[in-house]
Known about the structure:
Helix 2 packs antiparallel against helix 11 (about 225-250). This protein has helices at about 1-30, 30-35, 45-60, 60-65, 70-100, 100-110, 110-120, 130-145, 160-185, 190-215, 225-250, 255, 260-275, 280-300, 305-310. The protein has one domain. Helix content is about 75%, strand content about 0%. By secondary structure, it is an all-alpha fold. The chain is globular, with a radius of gyration of 19 Å.
Amino acid sequence: MEQTVVAESQGEFFLGYGACALASCIWGTGFFFGKIALTQMGVAHMVFYRFLFACVVLAPLLLRNPAHLSGAEWRVLLLASFFGVPVQFLVQFYGLSLTTVSHAALMVGTMPVLLAVAASLFAHERLDAVGWIALFSSTAGVSLIVLGGTPASSGLRGPSVMGDLLVVFSLAISLGWILLNQRLMRRHPPVVVTTYGLLSGAAMLAVVVLATQGVPPIHGVSGRVWLALAASGILCTSSTTLLWNWGMKRVPASRAGVFLNLEPAVGSILGVQLLGDRLGHWAWLGGGLIVAAALTLTTRGRTETAGILE
């Protein structure tokens, strides 16, 4: 009987890692879809439509997943949603508009280390020396992948300190969102925290965008851009957040963080294909570091399964 329970726990443990990995891979396509959408509209309107399409998918989940949150939990959820949706996304995409894709991806590659530090400080999660080495190796791998590509055009916007710092600032904001969601998911299903969090954040985003930027464009937007917006909302927002929160309920934030490096890795590969860059030997080495780090953390996590699922 005990062996069955342990097997089921280990199964959920690895499914949690798989959910986080898949979410990160899909998140990586957001740069590609966002680039297409930004050809015909500004940052704020692009983010607005992204969450509008996400709401179309998430809204029906309200009927089958009522929220039984206390007043204090509602305040935590709304605070997390405000910083996690309108503040984080508007700051991040504005920063991306001021710097290069390579620099922005490098900034995103620092997220796993930031997440591990935050989880150790605030969530009291332990990460041993091998775990830290894996996290830093994964981040180094992202750097190698991004630096392994050479821009095809010298006319691209160059990097800027302001843009880079804004991306880093948005990552710090997202840390609070992740950890607050993890706290709520100790008592509530991931689908409840995700659905009510994203929908409330999208409502706040709509108020901010409409008040500051006006009504987003409808006419004159090509079918290609609408498809990109729909994909960024349905795949890169609603689906990924559901997957990520489901996985985060089953694995520690410090260990799940390594899979966030798959996002800039996938994004940089798509950027290479889109911009005509070439991946060199350093980029392939970087991919190997990311895979090795992910395998190290997942295989060494077997002994921690029972403690995580308690």
